[in-house]
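QA checklist item 7 of 12: single-chain prediction sanity check.
[x] sequence parsed
[x] length recorded as 260
[x] structure emitted
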Amino acid sequence: MEQKLIEQLGDELYNALVSRQVIEPLTSRHADITVEDAYHIQQRMISRRLEKGEKIIGKKIGVTAKAVMNMLGVGQPDFGYMLDGMIYNEGESIDSKTLIQPRAEGEIAFVMKKDVMGPGLTAADILAATEGVMACFEIVDSRIKDWKIKIQDTVADNASCGVFVLGDKLVDPRSVDLSTCGMILEKNGEIVGTGAGAASLGSPVNAMVWLANTLGRLGIPLKAGEVVLSGSLAALIPVQAGDNLRVTIGGIGSCSVKFT
């Protein structure tokens, strides 16, 4: 894909983000777009945000569940970047008007304490570089009309990042079994989703290893102080103004958020 078109599509996604307007899927207009093209478009979209003063504070892993892989017709996850303009703290309210078509995911967030860069990293390397884990919500959002996405669409759209909410408790990842820890997701007091750490590539640590090694091949490290969202542990939950959500993950803690 020509650089001019990459920049044009990245700008189109950035403008959709700012104006909170959806666009038609990129894949419906450019049938030959590759995943590699999509990551270049993602970089253009991110660069526009950085020009406005935002800073990268972490990464996210998407498409970690088999069901989502099957839906998108791919055999591996994707990644995007978390910016400081996306972060909310435990219990804070999110103005639903700042998003387009949001959906909530209960996840485990990793907070890094030292830099690591693949390839060749193992689960032990990731755990040794992790300060702690916490319960979190990723509120995914898509600039693509009606969520009609293929893998190239979501990659280009910064892995459908919206905003994220961190819980108030940081736990040593070696003190909990990250594969078997159970998750309960409540919406307005009712349980709407359940899952376990194994939903994310068998373990969130596996997802982290995949990310670190994938980024490493691109010359990109995971940095000390960064927050990394390791993938959804259950189905995505649509949200709107008036909704109150809470996620509880066994041995790790909880996180809550409300939408106004």
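[x] summary fact logged: The helical segments are 3-19, 26-29, 35-51, 66-72, 123-128, 151-156, 204-217.
[ ] second reviewer sign-off
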